[in-house]
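Protocol step 4 of 6.
Sequence for DUF3043 domain-containing protein (Dietzia aerolata) entered exactly as in the expression construct, tag removed. Do not edit the line below.
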Amino acid sequence: MKLRAFGSRDDQNGKGSPAPEARPEPDAGSGDGSGGDAGQKVDPKKPAGKGKPTPKRRDQERARGMRQGPVTAPLTRKEAKERRKAAEATMTKEERKEAKAAERAAREERRQLMMDGDDRYVLSRDRGDVRRFVRDYIDTHRRLINWFMPLALFVIIFQLIPNPTLMMYSQTLFLVLIAVVIIDGILLGRKVNSVVRDRFPDTEDTGFGLGWYAVMRATQPRMLRTPRPRVRPGDAI
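Step 5 output, structure tokens:
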């Protein structure tokens, strides 16, 4: 039987099957006739792999106590109390005293800033230039509504005295006081809205809400108003 050699006429014309790929010869230095990988030598100076990925730097610092966080705000008072107890458990007695003193100082500083009208610490109802102007307007004007709380206190005291005549007069005084507060409150709310529109023509903080805010501040005694008054009665604003 005759074998057709590689590179025959069909192959040369491109009609035959492609020639097989050349295979690598076995390593001459290997004794068992295996591939070239068996003859490679391992460098003893090259360190072996760790078998696990290198941890991130922030994870290493957090494990050593160098990094704190991420810290999320507590959602409830119970959670805040538990966090405070856990933090105090790792402190000494002196450190706990210093932490409590610093907390009291920070709380007092926040309260003072709130009383001064700082928008970062006041309630949302007191924020803004319009509300600050309304407070100054109320603090610089005297009205009948300013006497509501003192007179209401006297009425309550008279009601506790077991005297029918005094109780009748106190009830009448209370009804008159309520009527005065309603009438003066309506007039004050309309006046405040008018002044605010003239001073802040582009503001949307007007209407019943702004008038009610002015009335509530006007009914409080001056020493109990929060934020505290910045101006005196009669001052120009």
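Step 6, annotate. Confidence is low (pLDDT under 50) at residues 1-20, 26-39.
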